[in-house]
Every structure is written in C-alpha cells, then in structure tokens.
Specification:
- With 622 residues, the chain is mainly beta.
- Among the domains are: 2-104; 352-410, Seminal Fluid Protein  PDC-109 (Domain B), CATH 2.10.10.
- The protein has 8 helices and 30 strands.
- Strands 12, 13, 14, 15, 16, 26, 27 and 30 form an 8-stranded mixed beta sheet that branches.
Length: 622
C-alpha cells in the first residue's frame, strides 16, 4: 500500500488514512534528496489516477504526505512530506504527475534566520588566545570577508564551516550536517549491495592548495600637540616680531604634514631701558650723545597640528597540503583555490546595514523593532522603539515624541587607524583563521573525490538520508571496502510495485595520519594547525608618537641679549639692531608618506588528519 494524503498544514501530525477521498493511491513515485552546493532540498514526484479537477484542485499548493505500509511494516511509514508546486501541465490525462518540494512555508526566511544566527559580528569580544572551542564560531564567520548584505545569501554563513544546510524530507525541519562526519553509519557490507557499484574519482585537490587574502587600509593620524608651553622672548624689535608671527593654519616647513593649529601672542611687557652711545659723521653734532633703547618681552603660545596618511596593504598567502594518499602526479602541483579575496574596509563599520525606508524587492515599508542596528547620517544607531520606518531617518518620531533611535559607537575591525599592521593583531588573527578554515572547507569538498553509487534493498534505503554515512564492501572496489558520506538518495517506486533505492556516497582517500598538535610557534583553528611567516611592517613614521614628538628645531635667533651685545660695539646701535630682527625658528620631523607600503606574509598549514575512507593505493600495502 502506497498513498498520497493531503494534510491541513506542513506541521500536522502524521495521521495516515487509507479511506477513499482522504488519500490517493500512488501509481509510481520518485523521491530525491541530493547535495547541491551547500544545500540539500529534497523533493518527490508521484503519479496518481486523475480524480478530476474537483478531486485535487482544492489541494493545490497544499502539503501532502507520501507514505506506505508493506507487509513487513508494523504500521504506515512516512517517506516524505512536501508542498505541491507547480500545478501539473497535463491536467486532462488519465493520470496526473504531481511534484512536491519538501520545504516549509517561508523556507527562505527560516534559512536566512538560521544563517544570521551563525554570523558573528564585530561586537564579539575575540580573544585569539582563548580555548579553540570558545573562539571557533567567530573564526567560522568573519564579516570582513562579506558585504553588509551578506544575509541575502545564507550559503555564505557556511563558507568556512565543514557543513551544509539540510531540509529533512519528513519533518521539514532545517538542520546542518557535516561534510564528512555522521551520527548514523549504515554498515551495509557485502550482502546488501546489488550489482557492482560505480566508482569515479574526479577533481581531486592538487598536493598543495593555496588561498590569498589582501587587507588594505589607510593608516591615519590626526591631532595636535603643544609645541611649547606658554613661552616668551625678549626683543628690541617687538613690532617686527609680532607682525611676522605666524598665523593659525600656516605650514611648518614644506609638505611636512605639520601646520600650526594655534599661534597666539598673549601679551607684551616692557623691560628696563638701555642707554647706548652713538658716534660717527652721520650723526653730526649729535655724535657722542646717547640713545635710549627699550626691549620688550613678548609672551606667546604655539600648538602644532599633524595630519598623517599612509596607504598600506598586507598580502597573505595560505598554503595547505591535501593530506590525501599519493595520487598520480600532475605537472602542476599547486593550485589557487579561488581568486584573491580583498577584505572589506577596516576603518568603517561594514557589518551593519544601512537604514532603509522600504524593502527594495517588495516595496513594503520596513518595520523596525527594538535592538535593530543600522547606519544612517554617517552614524551608527540602535532601535529604541518599535516603529514603522519614517519617510526620512529621524531620531525622534516628532518634536517631543518618542525616541526611535539611540546612537552607538561604530564597530570597525580596526578601531585605531594609527596601526601600521593588521593581520597579526588580535582582530587580524581572527581574519587569518577564518581564511584557514575557508581554505580547508574548499579543499575538503575536493578531498571527497571518490564517488560511489550503488543500490540497496528498499527497506534499508528508504531510511537513509544525506545526514548519514554508509560503509559498503565489494570485491571490485580498490581496497575492497569504502565508507563515505551520503550525498544523494533516489527512491523509486515503479508501476507494478517494484521499488529501488540508489545511494551515492563520497569518500576521502586520506593518508590515515594522526591529528597534529600545535608545537612551539604553531597555532590552531578547528582541526588545522599552522605556522606563520610575517615580515615586520615598514614604519617610516611612528603614528602613535606624533602627539608627543618634539620639534626638530625650536630656537630663537637674535634675542634681546644678542641684539644688545652687537649694538654696544657699534657706533650706530639702532641701525645694528635693525639688521638683527628677532626670529623664532620651528621645524618638525617630516611625516614621510609613500605611495603604498606592502607587507607580504604567509601561513603554512600542517597536513590535516584525514580518514582513509577508501584505499586508492592498495598496491602500496596500506
């Protein structure tokens, strides 16, 4: 007995009925569950006798159970549950072929929500020295590798996790299943495998796989510092000194990166008079007389401003051995797994979405709830009151109205833009470890290069899913036996009642080595142990010291004492002093800027411990 029975809702309890009108007799059916990319979305097709439009049209787009009860079954067995989509095309034939997808309502929203729960943002207090298990979730996902709208693609949440999304074909529940490991392993052995299984080995990874990431940012330091505490100079040429005193904003040197933020004469104080003798024909009868010279003390304040900007780039190359058995050599032993990845901006909050008034796809006004975070008006905000989006972003709904948004600190990966390095700082270490796991995930799919397809008895096959593994044996298989993760299940019920179950598994021809443990100067993320080789960054300017760097030159030329000494030995003291105006000389160390400072770095992974699920080299005696 095999039946198709429509049910009131996707989560209704399984309540089989063979009563006419409640269930349709299934003439044939095909149930398919297959890994495609990072997702498993089961479906099934059934052929039933056409009951006429009145018999099935009310059930259009509703859910149905596909179940059976064989003589060996103590009760009905649910094979799959799904929603009817689309409507059949040949609606006037003697039979109807109906297609069902094993997904709940709003499956996209369910998947998006589950993926978002795995996305660890910049608010996570990442400690690179914590226990590997405590930091692994933050290393599995790094927003620096994705845009702010990454949630539009749930697969990105698994790009570094060795898992795939999987919808259960019976419960319609969403879960994740490991690429390799399983809680259930069906030991099929020799007896339950029919004809010789098919085996193909396709697209194994090269002995060495590589990934490159690039971090680019602008090292910047802006601020001011006091060149001198309130200072003073005594001079006989105070008017000239004051008139030539620099103005705020004036450059200190040419293209040095320094300007005067503050240049202020605070007051001028008279000093005691000095009487000097004049002599010479130019003075006529006044020669031999005396003149009174009055010096003054000028009190002033100077503050310098610095503006340093340097383009920087770190290029990291990750190298990972395949960890597989020795396979036939190829000319090219190395392979770049994917195009170089340029990380997102380090100095801005790229993990928070921009505020929107309406959904760009549905044009529905967005409903914000308490806790939602957005970027708007150049600032970061947290929703304080549930509300429908206002036409323009407003902190308050209206003057004196409820507060809609509270400003918060932006979360940038690089909080201090003065840094001359990134990938070996704590936040950068998280990015490196994510890249290691991302590379391992990509290579792991390639390591599962042995694909085996075989048939098993129906009663066994109908209980196998893509969350399981299988072990089979056959004298024609290399190494006789193989264990692998199920990637496809095809259940076929033909007219006449013949049933077949075809299973596909993928296996890793691993070396069977033991798991590595970190040694001195080695690190671990997940199951991967690696070492680093990092060049020291070039530091032409210590950006952290600019707030306290002293002037390279700070000197007064021709102060009152020097002017007076020169005038006392001259017959024309006024003229002599006129040739010696008092000057203040200031020079700051130039802020050297290059077009681009590049730092090249590398990470080398130890060979991972991989199970020998299939022995492709039994000739090696393994």
């Amino acid at each position: 007995m095999k039946r198709l029975q429509f049910i009131p809702s996707h989560d209704a309890p399984f309540n089989p009925s063979a009563t006419d009108g409640d269930a349709f007799t299934v003439l044939s059916a095909v149930v398919t569950e297959q890994r495609v990319g990072r997702k498993v979305e089961p479906s099934f097709r059934v052929v039933i006798a056409n009951p006429g439009a009145a018999g099935w049209m009310p059930a259009a787009l509703k859910y149905a159970d596909l179940w059976e009860q064989r003589d060996e079954d103590p009760g009905p067995v649910l094979i799959a549950r799904g929603r009817l989509v689309p409507l059949p095309t040949d609606m006037a034939e003697a039979t109807l072929e109906l297609t069902f997808r094993c997904l709940p309502p709003d499956s996209d929203d369910v998947l998006t929500s589950a993926a978002d729960a795995l996305r660890i943002g910049e608010d996570f207090d990442y400690d690179p020295d914590a226990d590997p298990a405590d930091r692994l979730d933050a290393e599995y996902y790094d927003p620096l590798f994705f845009s702010a709208d990454a949630s539009d693609d749930p697969d990105t949440a698994l790009v570094a996790r060795p898992e795939i999304w999987r919808w259960d074909r019976a419960s319609l529940q969403l879960g994740r299943t490991h690429l390799v490991e399983s809680d259930v392993v069906h030991d099929i052995g020799y007896q339950s495998v029919g004809a010789a299984p098919s085996l193909s080995v396709t697209n194994p990874p090269k002995p060495i796989s590589m990934l490159r990431i690039i971090a680019s940012w602008t090292q910047a330091a802006k601020g001011r510092q006091t060149v001198s505490e309130p200072d003073a100079v005594s001079t006989f040429t105070s008017d000239d000194f004051i008139s030539s005193f620099p103005q705020p904003g004036a450059s200190i040197g040419a293209n040095t990166g320094w300007t005067l933020a503050e240049a202020k004469v605070e007051n001028v104080v008279n000093n005691l008079s000095n009487w000097l003798t004049i002599s010479g024909a130019k003075f006529g009868n006044a020669s031999g007389g005396q003149v009174e010279l009055l010096s003054k003390t000028v009190h002033f304040r100077l503050t310098a401003a610095y503006d340093y900007s340097q383009q920087r780039q770190e290029i990291l190359t990750l190298v990972m051995p395949s960890g597989l058995q020795d396979l036939p050599d190829e000319d090219d032993q190395r392979e770049l797994i994917e195009s170089p990845i340029t990380l997102g901006p380090l100095n801005i909050d790229s993990s928070t979405k921009e505020w929107l008034y309406e959904d760009p796809e549905t044009l529905e006004v967005i409903q914000y709830v308490v806790g939602d975070e957005v970027l708007a008006a150049g600032k970061a905000w947290t929703c304080a009151t549930d509300h429908e989006a206002t036409e323009d972003f407003r902190v308050r709904e209206y003057d004196g109205g409820p507060i809609l948004w509270i400003q918060r600190e932006k979360r940038a990966p690089m909080r201090d833009s003065r840094n001359s390095r990134f990938l070996d700082l704590p936040r950068g270490i998280r990015a490196v470890r994510h890249a290691v796991l991302r590379l391992d995930r990509a290579v792991m799919e390639r390591r599962q290069c042995a694909e085996i397809t075989f048939e098993v008895p129906w009663m066994l096959g109908r209980g196998i899913t893509t969350a399981h593994s299988c072990r089979i044996a056959h004298p024609k298989l290399p190494g006789v036996e193989v264990t692998g993760k199920v990637t496809a299940v095809d259940l076929n019920i033909e007219r006449g009642g013949r049933r077949s179950a075809k299973i596909t598994i993928v296996a890793i021809p691993g070396s069977g080595s033991i798991a590595p443990t970190p040694g001195p100067d080695e690190f671990q993320t997940g199951d991967i142990v690696y070492s680093t080789s990092y060049r020291q960054p070039q530091v032409p300017v210590n950006a952290f010291a600019l707030a306290s760097v002293p002037p390279r030159v700070y000197a007064v030329e021709n102060a009152a004492g020097e002017q007076l000494a020169a005038a006392m030995g001259s017959g024309d003291p006024v003229g002599t002093i006129g040739t010696m105006p008092t000057r203040l000389r200031i020079a700051m160390p130039a802020l050297r800027e290059e077009d681009l400072l590049t730092r090249r770095m590398s990470v080398t992974c130890l060979p991972p411990a991989l199970p020998r699920q299939i022995n492709l080299r039994p000739d090696m005696g393994a």
